[in-house]
Amino acid sequence: MMSFRTAALGVAFSFFFISAAGAEDAVTPDWSKAQTVEVTLTNYAFSPQSLHLRRGMPYRLHFVNNGSKSHNFDSDKFFAAVTIVPEDRAKVTDGKVELEEGQSTDVRLIPVTPGTYPVSCSHFLHAMLGMRGEAVIE
Fold it and tell me: Which of 82, 96, 123, 133 lies in the 20 to 30 Å Cα band around 42?
């Protein structure tokens, strides 16, 4: 006859493996269905200035530099609050996405930690001239 302890252990392992299988599906979204959000960088502005994302939803942030010089999307706290797809992690260096004039790139991510995170361009005087915003995870 099976002991209570052995039965309980079996139930616990079953629950763990079923939960792990469900978690695998949750962290492997269908990226073809991810919402694309365009983030445009121009001379001294971001559009949108306030980026609103929902926690747990997959997004493809499409960064476009329409300015006449290089710019970046700098927010180490925001990038620390999201999970970036491994293939796109190299596009974010030291908490920033750097774009030369006319360049664009996509970063696929899932927001994890709710909060409001400041965003700026860290190039000389760009933030002071108005290139500031926020990323909000709701």
Answer: 82
CATH number where 117 lies: 2.60.40.420
Domain that holds residue 126: 31-137
pTM for the model: 0.80
CA distance 85 to 30: 12
Is residue 69 in some structural domain?
A: yes
**d(C-alpha 56, C-alpha 54), whole Å:** 6
Cα-to-chain-centroid distance, residue 129:
26
Reading phi first (left if > 0) and then psi (alpha if -120 to 50, else beta), residue 125 is in left
